[in-house]
Design goal:
Elements: H1 4-22, H2 39-47, H3 52-67, H4 73-92
């Protein structure tokens, strides 16, 4: 079980990855909360141990259906890997 402090920490880390590494909009100096609506679904995926393919598909779905801008496959793969690494740190800190 993850305590509230742990949940807050991982959600901030997800936000950081989405803003820094994913950022399909590509606009400099976006407000910190620009992608916050995507944190919950991403959090649920990584906490349940989703595969890299599942995380990549989740990112692509958000790009296509919600943002209508698609990033490159290699960028999405790097972001999925970063998010998956957050999950591995989460499991070692519980």
């Amino acid at each position: 079980m993850i305590d509230k402090g742990g949940i807050r920490k991982i959600t901030l880390q997800i936000r950081d990855v989405l803003m820094r590494d994913w950022d399909p909009i590509g606009v400099p100096d976006l407000p910190a909360g620009e992608y916050d609506s995507y944190i919950g679904g991403t959090y649920r995926l990584i906490v349940r141990g989703a595969s890299l393919d599942e995380i990549e598909q989740h990112l692509r779905t958000m790009e296509v259906e919600r943002i209508e801008i698609v990033v490159g496959d290699s960028q999405r793969a790097r972001v999925a890997k970063s998010l998956r690494e957050l999950a591995s740190h989460l499991s070692t800190n519980q």
